[in-house]
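Thread: thiamine diphosphate complex, take 2
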Amino acid sequence: MTTQQLRPIRGVHNAPLEEFYTSGHRTCQGCESALVLRLMVKAAGPRTIVLGSTGCMYVANTTYYSTPWVVPWMHTQLGSSGSAATGTAAGLKALMQKGKMRDEPINVISFCGDGGGVDMGLSAISASLTHPEYNHLVLLYDNESYANTDIQASGSSPWGANTTFSPPGRERRIMNTRWKKNTAIMLAHGHPKSRYFATGCPSYSLDLMNKVRKALTIGGPTFIHTFDPCPKGWDYDPKYSHELGMMAVEAGLWVQWEMEDGKLTYNGPSRMIATGRRKRRPVVEYLKRQGRFAHFTEEDIAYFQAQVDEMWEKWGTPGISSVKLDLTGDRA
Ligand SMILES: Cc1ncc(C[n+]2csc(CCOP(=O)(O)OP(=O)(O)O)c2C)c(N)n1
Ligand code: SF4
Ligand SMILES: [Mg+2]
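Output below.
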């Protein structure tokens, strides 16, 4: 099956004016996950089918009899974004081959949250990435918690964050002792036949829209992971959503990259940091702006900074992957 040839958008002034995710949703003010979906489908255009797993972006978007979706949209189970993507792409292909529908390139995009993709549906996403015969994009929007059910910690929640699963106490301050899972590069390393993987952030809207376009144009199964500030779960004034996304990237906490046919490149500020043209901002500025880290002591902040420093200074691919090549370590 061929794909739509979606050309890169050169500058925000050239972004399409049409909206396919409009009014009718009930997400919080300043919800960056909602903005991700708006940019995603704006980039994809009208001949698109969207599938969405359970979470804020299902529940708040499709209250009974109201929806912001202008394109066809279907809900799928919390851990099923991968299987819904494969199944829909396979179904379309079969119908077209049998002549039961017009043979035309239709974008299939399946989205899930971090609970749905980093944790519960990881195996289904992995399976979907092993089927080069089907064209689809899985977009994982990461608000760093199971937000819809009241902000439980997920495998993508940051170390030390106050969530309903990890409330700081008098005896023990740090309850979430896990470091955020490195999902996108794990999937990129593990699925060599899939041609496109990327990270994104709605604070860099053009970059995100062009990544969606590239993923849909290149064909086969593709994957994008976005970083989405969430005013409710992260506890800050909604007007700072965009700024927080930029601060996370500038602190080197969230790294903007893409991998096309196995070639990995840094994008935007992450590229400047990786090439030494820009210094990372201290993480304390980012942490202090959010209520979920309000219990942090100087020692906690220093620990957090040290972990980020290690990502950039000790990892094999700075900020992205801890894997290092060592040809001297053979014990034989
Ligand atoms: C199998 C299953 N377990 C639990 C739930 C309850 N549930 C609905 S939404 C949700 C949170 C999903 O979190 P995430 O995927 O991160 O999306 P977000 O709500 O953060 O947008 C949970 C646990 C469910 N719908 N299905
Ligand atoms: S809780 Fe967070 S992710 Fe959910 S609608 Fe509100 S801002 Fe968006
Ligand atoms: Mg979530």
